[in-house]
User: Fold this.
Amino acid sequence: MLDLAETLGSLLLWVNLKRNDMQKELNELKMKFDKFHGIKTETIEQNQEEKDLKAVKRNGWALEIVKIQTPGICLEAVKNDGMALQFVKIQTPEICLEAVKNDGMALQFVKIQTPEICLEAVKRNGMALEIVKIQTPEICLEAVKQNGWALQYIKIQTPEICLEAVKQNGWALQHVKIKTP
Assistant:
């Protein structure tokens, strides 16, 4: 058992040394490239970020081909088209909120739904209630205020919610589960 621990320790040390050597080689190559071409690689990376930002501002779906996603690039992409959220590798509450503000149905791509994000989604599109994982009375009420047909997705109907749905769209009456005379 001791031999195994020593072998593993030696192996880890060797891997770290190799990694350090590779990092040194990479840095040397970058310096040679910069010197040969008269520009810095950081400038190229910055220019690429600017190009990516312009692309997603024109079309949010361009995010699908962006190699290095920054929070700023992702935010601009979902501001342009909320459905671009499906291409965001690291979601933040701010990015998700912007996405559903742009398109309530972008909620389907939100990995961690918060009440605030869900509320905003149904305010934009009441039918997004179908995607809401945890329905609250407030979220349900906002959904039917935006679209009475959302009543069909409400798990626990209250008289207040049903009345609001029918006010918004009389045809929503057919989705009321318990009708009073």
